[in-house]
Structure formats: structure tokens, C-alpha cells
Amino acid sequence: MIASMGNIWLAIFIAIVAFPVEAASVDPLVRPSMISPYAANAVLLGIDCSGEQVISVGEKGTILVSSDAGGSWKQVGAPVSVSLTNVRFASDKSVWTVGHSGVVLHSDDAGESWSKKFDGVQAAQVYLAAVNSKPVEETYERLKFEAERLVADGPDKPFFDVYFFDEKQGFLIGAYGLFFGTNDGGNTWQSWHDRIDNPRGMHLYSIEVSGQDIYIAGEQGVLFHSNDMGGRFKRIETPYEGTLFDVIAGNNETLVIVGLRGNAFYSNDGGMAWNKSKADTEYSLTAGTQLANGDLVVVDNGGQLLLSKNNAVSFEPIVLERSYPFTDMMQLDDGGLVVSGARGVINVPSSSVNQAL
């Protein structure tokens, strides 16, 4: 189990430990996911939408697709059976998902079918080649050691988030500072380890893009910023030393970071000064988003949605009919939310979204 990953991944660990020995003998990188009548109640870790098309991904290669804004769901097959951690639409038809074993999958038909574009074996080789191509300098031996260890470990490092600017250009992040980009729609990938000020190889969990600005949040309070579309990332100092699971770019220069044990902080000047948000929860805050009306919503792995109407100064719980540990969410065109978690997906109507306790 990777250190400092938080309670959000506990369910994955249990699922992996409980997986039958005979199934585990087949490499999950080549074993397709199993179609299950219980998939709608699976542990789901990421969700995204484009119009009424919604996709959620999770344990053992589970991919659920809805074409009616989460009203009904169907499971589609994946070419792998590793846990998938996140999913992103690049366009109405182009969708990307990433996960354990360095897996990167792509769909060009809005999630109906998927192909593998990258994995941990290839990622290790790309990283080693990138390090060996650089001039020998003070950090060369350390980077070479890390790259060779990555190759020796095999495909055991997960990716946690992916983002595509268009059909061709995108990048992804993961454990131990894994950072790769592509300019040809994922046909080839390059190591971007030298673009980010992350010498200790902290886990990178979440990407937020706002115009020309890109933010990446990770473990031990690390937060990175690029103002040139990913050409170079510099570290922003934060007041928290625990894991950050998400970063939200709000109105004007507002930034909000959320993480372990209910910790949330906001900055009104792009990260130069921070204030602690008031959020009445001790559970880890796993994801957040800015709503169409400018309000902010975050979810925790205790099963709460928390709403802020004052730019993250404070958060109040939203009344829910049912709840379980939540992992991610997106706002639909009608103002409602779709929320992924430990027992599938729930829909929160727009009438509930704007009503906090």
C-alpha cells in the first residue's frame, strides 16, 4: 500500500486482498474487466460528464456509462482489470481514464469502447530513456537510480489524474511524482519530470485547469502551478503538510485546497496567503468543484457533500437521502450533481444542491 494515500484507497486495498487467487494469477494488464450485474454498486473512484453523457470508473476495471445524465447506467468492458482512478472527457467523444499499473485507456466513442494507450511498463522505459538522454549533472545519478528502480519494480505505480487540452495534447500524473505528456493523442508519451519542481517525488493526485493556469495538488501539502500551459510548474507554498487530494480554481484569483482529516484552505491572491476554511468534518475531503453559480461543493469519504456560498470561508452539509464514502463529483447541465463513491453513483437534484443545513 502506498504511504499517505489516505482512506480513499482503503476500499481498493480490501478489494485487491479479497480477490480470488486463481484470478490474480492472470496479469490484470491483459485480463479484461468482468461484466457484473452488481457493477452499479461497485467502488467507483472518478466521474466526469459531457452534456448528458456521464462516465464513472473504479475497482477491477469497472466502467459505467450513462447517456441520460445518470438516470440509468450500463457497464462497458475494459481491456484491463486494474482499478481505474479517474476519468476525463477531452471532447464529446474523446474520453481518457487512468489507473493502477500505470494504465491509460482511451475511448473515441464517448465511452462505449476502450483501448489501452500506455501502461506502467512503457512508462518506466520512457522515464529511463529520458533520464539517460540528459547531460550528466549533479542530479543525474539520483534520477538514474529512480528510473532503473521504476523499471525493476514493474507496472505497480498508479496514475491518479489525466487532462487533455484538445484531441492531441494532454498529460497525466501519478504516484512518486510520475508525470508524462503527449502531443499525438497518446500514441507516444514523454516524461515531463523535468518540468515540475518535485525533487522528492511526491505523489501527485489532482489536476485543475483554469484558462492558461494549471494547478497540481499532491501529498505532504505540495501544490504546483504553471502559467504557460504546462511548460513549467513551480511550487506554491501551502499551510498544510498533509495530503491534498484536490485543488479548485474559483472566481478571480481564489484557490481552494482540500485534503486529509477535513482540512480545507482558501487563498484570494493566487496562493500567496492562505486562510483555513471552516468545514465541520473530520473525514478526508476527496474532491471539489465550483458550481455554475460560483458556489463551491466538496465531498468527503464519510459520505457528506459540503456547500460553500461564501467563497470557501465555510462549508455546510447538503441534505442527502442516502450517502456512503464519496470520491468524486461533477455538476450536470441541469444544476444537479452526480457523485461517485464506495457503492456506486448517486444523483443529487439541483433543488438539493443549493440547500445546506
Short description:
The protein has helices at 10-17, 21-24, 120-132, 140-153, 350-353; strands spanning 44-50, 53-58, 63-66, 74-76, 84-89, 95-99, 104-107, 115-118, 159-164, 170-174, 179-182, 190-191, 204-210, 213-218, 223-226, 234-236, 244-249, 255-259, 264-267, 275-276, 278-279, 285-290, 296-300, 305-308, 314-317, 326-331, 337-341, 344-348. With 357 residues, it is mostly beta strands.
Written description of the protein model:
There is one protein chain. This protein is mostly beta strands and 357 residues long. It is built from five helices and 28 strands. The chain has helices at 10-17, 21-24, 120-132, 140-153, 350-353; strands spanning 44-50, 53-58, 63-66, 74-76, 84-89, 95-99, 104-107, 115-118, 159-164, 170-174, 179-182, 190-191, 204-210, 213-218, 223-226, 234-236, 244-249, 255-259, 264-267, 275-276, 278-279, 285-290, 296-300, 305-308, 314-317, 326-331, 337-341, 344-348. It has a five-stranded mixed sheet, with no helix packed on it. A hairpin with a 7-residue loop joins strand 19 (264-267) and strand 20. Helix 3 (120-132) packs antiparallel against helix 4. The longest helix has 14 residues, at 140-153. It is globular and about 55 Å long.
